[in-house]
Amino acid sequence: MTAVLEKPTQQLTPKEPRQWKGPAVFVAVAIIALVVMPLVLEPFRLGLLAKYLCYAIVALGIGLAWGQGGMLTLGQGVFFGLGGYAMGMYLKLNDAGGDLPDFMVWSGVEDLPALWAPFGNPVFALAMVVVVPLVVAVLLGTLVFRQRVRGAYFAILTQALAAAMVILLVGQQGLTGGTNGLTNFFDFFGNDVAAESTQRGLYLTVAIVLGVLYLAAWQLVRSRFGRLLLAVRDGEDRVRFLGYNPATVKTITFAISAVMAGIAGALFVPVVGIISPALLGVVPSLELVVAVAVGGRFALAGAVLGAVVMGYAKTYFSEELPDAWLYLQGALFILVMTLAPKGIVGVATALRARVRKEASA
Fold first, then answer.
1. In Å, what is the CA distance from 226 to each residue of 70, 150, 203, 261, 348?
2. Is the pLDDT of residue 173 over 70?
3. What distance separates the 2 farthest-apart alpha carbons in the chain?
4. Distance CA 15, CA 354 (A)
């Protein structure tokens, strides 16, 4: 005889203070970013902050793939570049007004390459910012994860992809601008790129996009898929034995992180005014991984915080101690990985727990 158990009636109770803490912090940060910063920062510094936030979007994707999924990706610069070049191609064609972009004229190109022609349409260009990184990540993830490539082997593979991407771009002078890349943008959807109002609007756009993507990633981590992703990180073989396909989970996550990097690259182009191979090679990709580690790879907020902190530190020390920055960056990474593997967020969490414990004792 089957017993039928009735669920007890659940009463709605107000949220505890801890439950409100996360949303309250997010709202406070959003107010600071969207209201306070545009008022207190001069245009040049606001533009630098917009650049840091672009990197933060890439770091958010790395935090999702590495911190939540255990996939150490050292080639996010590839997807950053794909999105950036898609946007840059549209802006160059728009500035050319039907003629050849300036660098093609200097390179002796006589006819617009077929690859460039569709990017004269802004809708197509914006779509490619998402589609191209997505397709590349899905193809790479499907080929790699089905072969159960993981750990250091996956990291080296993505790093090699970034190196190959740089070689390809540099070798196609007439198609990609070569070492110089794409630069000298003047018009951004009818607005003067150099105008203060345009740069302020771009900053707000980057901040809003980062906030939306953060909320989406946060919701993904809290979902059933997010719990499955954590299970894959902590015990991939066990997940496989339970009947799930870790390759599918990792491919989806890797593709999401690639799309985030592509969007960041597209926003970076009008903010900074350039996209070149030097911005998407092995070294920039490694710097973003270091930033995520410093902020705290196990927390999405840590990845964002690390990117902003490291971006500011790079600017400050490059201005004050230009010859010492690389050594400081390397030393900081070593110290964090050895003394505080959970980064700034991990240290803050441990200190808060210790204070709470001492207060309750």
1. 12, 19, 30, 20, 24
2. yes
3. 86
4. 24
C-alpha to C-alpha distance for 94 and 6, rounded to whole angstroms:
65
Residue written as token pair 């960056």: 329
Parallel/antiparallel/unpaired status of strands 187-188 and 191-192: antiparallel
Inter-CA distances, 150 with 42, 147, 236, 261, Å = 45, 9, 10, 21
Is 16 a residue whose pLDDT tops 70?
no
What's the angle, vertex CA 134, arms to CA 151 and CA 178, rounded to 5? 90
Question: Which two structure tokens, joined as six digits, stand for 99?
Answer: 């003629």
Q: How confident is the model over 241-290, as pLDDT tens digits? A: 988 999 999 999 999 999 999 999 999 999 999 999 999 888 899 899 99
* Rounded CA separation 66/338 (Å): 18
Residue carrying structure tokens 């990709």? 285
Rg (CA), the chain: 22
pLDDT tens per residue across span 74-130: 999 999 999 999 999 999 999 988 889 988 988 888 889 999 999 999 999 999 999
